[in-house]
Amino acid sequence: MTRVLALTIRPLDGPDTRYRILEYIPHLEKAGIEVVHNSLLSRNFYRRQQARKLNVSDALSFIAAALGRAAGLLRHLSFDAVWLARELLPYGPPLLERLLFQTGVPVVLDVDDALFEPDPAGGFLHRNIRDFTKYAYIVPRCRTVVAGNRYLADYFSRLNVAVEIIPTCVDHLKYAGIARRPSPDDRIRLGWIGTPANRGHLDLIRTAVERLARHHPLEFRAVGLGSPLGWDMDRCLSIPWRLPEELDYFTDFDIGVMPLADTAFTRGKCAFKIIQYMAAGVPVAASPVAANREVMIAGEQGFFAEEPQEWERVLETLILDKELCRRMGESGRTRVREKFSLAAHWSRYADILRGR
Known about the structure:
Layout: E1 2-8, H1 15-20, H2 25-30, E2 33-39, H3 43-50, H4 56-71, E3 81-85, H5 95-102, E4 107-111, H6 124-128, H7 135-138, E5 144-147, H8 150-157, E6 163-165, H9 172-176, E7 188-193, H10 203-213, E8 218-223, E9 236-239, E10 255-258, H11 272-279, E11 284-286, H12 291-295, E12 302-304, H13 308-320, H14 322-339, H15 342-354
Parallel strand pairs: 1-2, 1-3, 3-4, 4-5, 5-6, 7-8, 7-10, 8-9, 10-11, 11-12
Helix pairs in contact: 10-13, 11-14
């Protein structure tokens, strides 16, 4: 039995933890790999962080968690490998990583964001305390680096030749039963799912959606924002995100949107919204940025758009053609099953964690 310690920043609620680590554990266990998971942040802390409601007591609990992670590093000697998701701490230099590498336990690093680039939407701590150079130290010392897309792989390959690309995957069988719930008033529902930090990307489509809403019965459903968008249209809903209802949101999406500003940071994103939309059989309209182009084939599972006029044209095409939407939705399910499912990739993780 191979024993692996998976270290993440976020708990179960964090999509990177859930989809890049935890969902693989049952498959890995069947292959003889025991995975023990430890997250830095508690679920309550993470939820308050996402709601931007952290207080002094949360700051103290973060310090305690960081000290606990440091104190636990020596226990890693009993594992055959450490599966490190992103980093050990989100702030400061790689001090804990230095301790980790001194234990001699092989490290597999898994990264799904351009963490070496500043995020324009990041807050004060992100801008002033984060060390964006830490991967120059971490990456060369890892046995293997798993990157979520080609952009990340190209960056890490300059520092380590042992780089593998594994996209952020879903269990396609869980999504297979998702079916559209008819809108009670026959409105076409445009859907988006994300976090408050990604709110700014929605500005890319605001003009197009508001114009379309004047001529078509539309509803815009934004899941996970935490506050209203305030767009000039009759039906613009801000819906809280809850883990138990994660798959239910897609039953009310007729079209999934993923607008994304083109920045050095966003080029590292792994197009996970698109993968979820496609897995749920939802046609997609998205920005042609980075991994979005790797995941979706334009004209088959959806369309790409950049300027507001193009977004308006693409969305109107989908709004007016239900049969096209149905075909694109089915094509999306097939593409996810073949290219972006746990079934397609879990054995690669098993080999990487064993050091093969």
